[in-house]
Amino acid sequence: MSDAAGRSGEPVRRRSVRFRLLAIALLPMLVILPLLLGVAIYRWNAKFDATLISKVNGDLTIAHQYLARILEKTGVQLRALSLSARFHEVLAPDARDSLRELLEETRKEIGLDFLYLTNDRGDVLASSPPLQHRPRSDWPIIAAALSGQASATGVDIFGNDELAAISPALAERARLDLVPTPNAVPTDRSVETRGMVVHAASRAMLPGGGAAVLVGGTLLNQNLEFIDTINDLVYRAASLPEGSQGTATLFLDDVRISTNVRLFEGRRALGTRVSAAVRSAVLGEGRTWLDSAFVVNDWYISAYEPLVDSYGKRVGMLYVGFLEKPFSEAKYQTLVIIIAAFIIITAATVPIFLRWASSIFMPLERVTATITEVERGNLSARTSMPVSSDEIGRVAIHLDSLLDQIQERDRQLREWNEELNVRVRERTRDLEHANLKLEATTKQLIMSEKLAAIGEITAGVAHEINNPIAVMQGNLDVIRSVFGADADKAKVEFRLLDEQIHRISQIVTKLLQFARPEEYAGYVERHAPASVVSDCLPLVQHLLNKTEIAVVRDDRADRLVLMNRNELQQVLVNLIVNAIHAMPEGGILTLRSFDAERDGQQGVAIEVTDTGIGMSAEVVEKIFDPFYTTKRRQGTGLGLSISQTLIKRQGGQITAESRVGSGSTFTVWLPEAT
Question: What is the pTM of this model?
Fold first, then answer.
């Protein structure tokens, strides 16, 4: 006992003295300082990332202001044209050629892709370039200008036909082949034909006093000058560290229609699409995205904001961002330098701490070595340390004195122990003899219990296998009596035979499911209750044919249930067979399915009702107990218990209502499949 105690206590004493002293010496350097350093690095990393997000947010603000400025400038220029004296001079009907020349000159001067004058009836009075067809006149900005607003601007989406009505060249410029992009929302489209247009309208007055509108616009699809100007404004030279680069993009929906992001060297990523996560946040929820994002082929610190058309709908996005890799590399290099400096300082200072502590460790190790020898049985071991006035020296002298006393006590204990061992051996022989008898009796009881359990389970298996065997036999009778040797007409029956043979193997599995349902869950699927009931009736048709039982169907369930089809069929067949056995003289078997709610949860109920002999209230309370049966010669009482286990595993329940002489109703309730 003393040796065992010493061996179990040895690591405790070492941890409590030597290792704790080392911990006291090294804790500040190896634990506290790294923790503080880790917290500082974590905070610095968070601030570093926040600074990058703040920068890209500022970049997005500049890009947004530039786009707003383009809209405002376009409206101002159209307003200036509508108020100019030259414009009013050429409004006369006999000066329409001069009006077209003025519109052509102004369009080129202010950089518009189209410019036309229309009256309040939508008739185009003059245009540049010449319009192919009459354009739409129901744009909100046109309506705003006609209602009295001096000028109105916005970003609008033109269909390809609408662009072609203005100019076939614009329709061709808007067309972009979509490039398959990882992480984008799946789409069946292969081409984008719509155009995003900076759309402006300004009110003008005709010589006769009628209202007119100057309408102009610039197509942004593949407008590289527009997007490069944004990029130059946001990311001027030397505004980013070496190795990083700024990018800007204009999206129509989630398609890049104007960008300086490169798909590969020399080709812009036009036609590529944004990731599903960004699309959901920006276009779906209307939020501004400020975070790291994978753009085409690399990670960028990115900012996306939704673009809204004149109808108030989100139709696209404005993006700016810069390459994340140089910042990440700089951050990791800084972390490596900090960690390397910490390791070097620690490696230089720890030996000094250890040398200072050795003056304490060496005497303690002599004491520890002596205690170890004593634990191994050498009670004559002593520290033999020189007399010292410090605390450790006094402890060593006191330890030697205690060891002398322990050695004497040990001698006495050994003598008493020998006498005690003699008595214990006598008692042990008696106990061993009694234990042998007890073990033999226990083995017999265990064997009896196992045999009883095996007998019950075997009977249950035999009972469950009887039903599919009967079904197979019934279908064979049908084949022989109806079709004879014409086997080609009996394909359905042969299929049923295959299914029931498979079901025989499933019966054994059901027994195991009763004991360990969590290990035999099976595959679950969504089913309409009526279809499962329909599949069950052929399986019991031979039993129905033996007695005068009418089957009534009432299928009103609209919901689906989620359960393994074979398991649900097993439950319903078991209930139907029990109902048939309850009507030996014939009767009515009613099968109903309908939507039902239980405890606030939506679900489906399937009722199996018979007009048989019924059951008393005492029997109803026990019918779901394992091995309880009213069929003393035929059943084992496992059928309803297994069925209840299968249904409960899917979150449902089987309930029974019955009265003696009035039949029984079994209700299977399952939650609705979601």
Answer: 0.52
